[in-house]
Amino acid sequence: MNPEAWQCRDRFLELHSPWLTLIGEHLKDSQGQLLQYWRVEKADSAIILPIQNQQLILPPPTYRPGVGELTLDFPGGRVPSAEQPLAAALAILQRELGVPEEAIVRLVALNSEGWAVNSSFSNQKLYGFVAELHSTAKVPSDLLGATYPTTKVGIQSLVDSLTCLQCRAVLLQWWLLKS
Q: Strand (E) positions, 53-177?
């Protein structure tokens, strides 16, 4: 299939908000069919796996409107367009766990290009990081939601508790690289 054969005939809707842009387009596919297609443009995301003393650290569960419930997630958030993913990861750790940059021994990117979150629907990319925290770094008790050991049993228990597919993907990538 020739990707150049796909053509945008027109854009019939473009709706902007601070969180996303919704775009409706008519696309002509490689067989000449005219399709109505919807997509979302969003800022990229970063998810960080904080590890201290062989424990993964997670903030308290957060309400997620998409599923209508509290979910346990790794620290994460948007990467502002003018910012590098690494800088965003540092800001996220400070905001969600109260961890200043000097408390981080090492911050390693799991992917340098970002993974497509949903390539048929969105331009958003996901960047994964692992942050090794100093053994004596303190996470304020009100920002500490859960800890899980970095053992096979601990990881399995954590996977059973995570509903966020992006968090699970970053955890899996780290586990595969670690093994």
A: 55-58, 62-64, 69-71, 76-79, 104-109, 115-116, 125-133, 146-149
Instruction: Spell out the per-residue pLDDT of the chain, length 179, in tens.
Output: 566 678 999 999 999 999 899 999 999 998 899 999 999 999 999 999 999 999 999 999 999 998 999 999 999 999 998 899 999 999 999 999 999 999 999 999 999 999 999 988 899 999 999 999 999 999 999 999 999 999 999 999 999 999 999 999 999 999 999 87
Q: 141 near 59, Cβ under 8 Å?
A: no
State the DSSP H helix or E strand holding residue 117, giving kind and residue range, or none if neither. Answer: none
* Among 129, 51, 118, residue whose Cα is nearest residue 86: 129
Beta carbons within 8 Å of 72's beta carbon, 6+ residues apart: 58, 61, 145, 146, 161, 162, 163
| 31 token code pair | 């067989």
| Fold observed for domain 44-178 | Nucleoside Triphosphate Pyrophosphohydrolase (3.90.79)
- Name the residue ranges covered by the structural domains of the chain: 3-41, 44-178
**CB within 8 Å of 3: residues ≥ 6 apart:** none
pTM of this structure: 0.90
